[in-house]
Amino acid sequence: MKKLFKFILNTIPRPLLIRLSYVARPVLAFFLKGDTFTDPIDGKSFKTFLPYGYGNQRNNVLSPSTLSLERHRLLWLYLQHETNFFSSEHVTERKKVLHFAPEQCFLKRFRTLNHIEYTTTDLLSPIADVKADICNLPFEDNSYDIILCNHVLEHIPDDTKAMQELYRVMKPGGVGVFQIPQDLSRAETFEDDSITDQKERARIFGQYDHVRVYGRDYFDKLRSMGFKVDEVDYTSKLSEENIKKYCLAKGEILPVVYK
């Protein structure tokens, strides 16, 4: 079963995979149910999670029920326990939320939150509300209270322009989470436009459609755009037992930004 799922993930185009996954999830969840690992997004437990990755497969990381990865479960736990994102208590005005490249594991759950005004956007995603280029957004200045932009910027050749647009459309006092795949052992971000072969790009950048590997300087680049940045290691607040139970990447940093 896991070998078959690995083959599917690496051969089927992403838009088609999104549609197929709605059918596949219940089947996968049934065959892998157990009590070793838990997806905190839906609370379901399994004997194992699935492998995932381009070229360099990571084992036991993809939830069979929500198709969440380590980064999604980390963000969910942070929003749930460290913010009022899910709470409607004392809400007098709906917060405007902009979500880039909306992930399936979040989409329907965020749409049920009546205390937020939820908009999704992406250039290509079939499940986005607004088709838009992150470097040229069709939104007014100071529009959004909360912006989620996770594992997007590593795909964007001009990430400076994208960050400027994110800053422009965020309201003063707004907050965002801008996760990226990051090599914390690197002081500086690496990119090389001359590398065009997809296999070579996957080997060097981690995925064939990534254009850079971010280093620790990512946080300072966000600061240079005007954001205040908190480098949040939420896993440091969790027990080793829960890190293993939720299949998280220990030490992964959440870039939480403010305007």
The largest sheet, given as strand count, sense and whether it forms a barrel, is:
7 strands, mixed
Order of helices and strands: HHEEEEHEHEEEHEHHEHE
Q: Tell me, what's the shape?
A: globular
Strand content: 15-25%
- Could you say what the CATH architecture of the largest domain is? 3-Layer(aba) Sandwich
Query: How many domains make up the coordinates?
Result: 2
Characterise the protein shown here.
- This protein folds into two domains: 2-67, no CATH class; 72-258, 3-Layer(aba) Sandwich (Rossmann fold), CATH 3.40.50.
- 32% of the residues lie in helices and 21% in strands.
- It is built from eight helices and eleven strands.
- Strands 7-6-5-8-9-11-10 form a seven-stranded mixed beta sheet. It has a two-stranded antiparallel sheet with strand order 1-2. It has a two-stranded antiparallel ribbon with strand order 3-4.
- The protein is globular.
- Residues 11-18 have low confidence and may be disordered.
Key structural traits:
8 helices, seven-stranded mixed beta sheet, globular, alpha/beta, 259 residues, Rossmann fold
Topology:
Layout lengths: L1 H10 L2 H19 E6 L6 E2 L3 E3 L5 E5 L7 H13 L12 E6 L3 H8 L4 E7 L7 E2 L12 E5 L10 H11 E8 L20 H8 L12 H7 L3 E5 L7 H6 L8 E5 L1
Parallel strand pairs: 5-6, 5-8, 6-7, 8-9
Antiparallel strand pairs: 1-2, 3-4, 9-11, 10-11
